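Lecture 7 notes: from sequence to structure.

We start with a single chain of 364 residues. Read the sequence below before looking at the structure.
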Amino acid sequence: MSEQTLLAALKLDIVVIGAGQAGLSAAHHLRKLGFEPEKDFLVLDRAPQPGGAWQYRWPSLTLSTVNRVHDLPGLAFGEFAGGDDTVKASVAVPHYFAAYETHFDLRVLRPATVKVVCDRGERLRVESDRGLLSARGIINATGTWENPYVPEYPGADTFKGQTLHTKDFRTASDFAGRHVLIVGGGISAIQLLDQISQVTRTSWVTRTTPRWRDGPFDEDAGRKAVAMVEERVRAGLPPRAVVSVTGLPVTPAIAAMRKRGVLDRQPMFSEITPTGVRWPDGRTLNVDVILWCTGFRSALDHLAPLQLREESGGITMTGRLATQAAKDPRVHLVGYGPSASTIGANRAGAAAARELTSFLNLVK
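Now the structure, written as tokens:
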């Protein structure tokens, strides 16, 4: 589709915003239901190439260190990974996503950034930097990568060292010779703590005491964890990371970190000073770098005119897999809350495609 095609408002049944795991799954299932891309639905993606957030991951994140990459529906990831676990995730997954888009002829329009979505009565107006679209419904799959979260602490603007977020990390060698304070208790925090601690001095702080999981994490435990996140979004509360429920697995890498004394976790500081941080008891620590591994928030600012959020800050979700926005059933959010994992995104994409087309009474 050419850019000129979108100069006038293009009328479609459904617009899918985002072409990561959840967006591609939704597009695939719309295809299976008989809907044609560029005619009945259109997928917009702000990235310059396929791969979703994976294309921006740090180079040291390989297929051997990443959490499992689940197959998209209908095409196995293993066919494209080549069996080499040393391949960068930022290379392997985009290659797979590109092949997927081509194999199922999904015709993703990129780069295309959606600026705002507005209610126009029976239809929704989607304003993008590639033109205007008019849709009966949308499936939003914008993920979280574009919205890194850094909590506010007194004195943050006085810190004379370097401050950065997980999103900014490239390689541990960048920090050689500097004292790095790593903030956060998730899997990414542990991975970066492991890498950076091997080249320089590190300290580690978390808001709550980390929960370690020694036993296996089977499918039943996974379902229970996702159910707890789903319960929150159905109640209109902001979703929490699944790892807050599942705990951190004690891998060989973590066992090695324990032996090296790297996992000497400290509680959260109360303020930031020009040279480091200070705790409530007055104790201080001088550091050169503060690395915030504090996660991401859903990138949903473009949906603000639809007023989907509750006073709690969350969005009340309904539908079989909690993908449908209760305040506007024409809007489905996939990759939000319980569907933030790759396997959850697959299931959510299927549910959103079926439920939205049914709600809109679209039959092919």
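The first strand starts at residue 10 and ends at 17. Keep this in mind for problem set 3.
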